Amino acid sequence: MTRFLSWSLLEQLAEHGEELYLLDLAAVRRSFVEWRTALRAAYPESAVAYSYKTNYTPAICHLVDELGGCAEVTSSMELDLVERLGVAGARVLFNGPYKQLADIERALCAGALVFLDGLHEVDFVEAVAARDPQRTLRVGLRCHVELEGSSPSRFGFDVGSRAFAEAVSRLTRVAGCTAVNLR
């Protein structure tokens, strides 16, 4: 049954409180499919990810998962949500400049792709690998290139820096570590 928005429906809904948030999952589905189609036309191998930090409404996150999208998460709370929703670890991208060792370990052990922002996070990967050398760990490096006339980025590795070269060198020596991506 199709329900149309009307004053009487809004009055019924307002019995639950004055603030209303309406979600049209059919429109979200159409938008996601259109976006996925356009992205894959330009970048056929690209993962199509939805940023949970943008809107972590479980219905939207579940729909994106149902449509084969990846979950891009940046916090412990968002990792909790992907676990509750049953999103496969291999379809989780853990990104962001402030990741705790416990969260990095949880994401890596679940099979997520973890994007590293600094050498301290390479330390975390080495620690996880030392505890379980048989496990495959999927990591990427978040990178930036300094452009003349622009401010340096606060996030990721400067690709021309010693830290970047050290991160690559150290990760190639970590048992089970698979460098999957530069971002």
Summarize the structure.
43% of the residues lie in helices and 16% in strands. By secondary structure, it is an alpha/beta fold.
Task: Explain this structure.
The structure is a single chain. The chain is an alpha/beta fold. The protein is built from seven helices and eight strands, in the order H-H-E-H-E-H-E-H-E-H-E-E-E-H-E. It has a six-stranded parallel beta sheet. Strands 6-7 form a two-stranded parallel ribbon. It is elongated and about 65 Å long.
Q: How is the secondary structure organized here?
A:
Elements: H1 7-14, H2 25-42, E1 49-51, H3 58-66, E2 70-73, H4 76-85, E3 92-94, H5 101-110, E4 113-116, H6 119-131, E5 137-141, E6 143-144, E7 157-158, H7 162-172, E8 177-182
Parallel strand pairs: 1-2, 2-3, 3-4, 4-5, 5-8, 6-7
Helix pairs in contact: 2-3, 5-6, 6-7
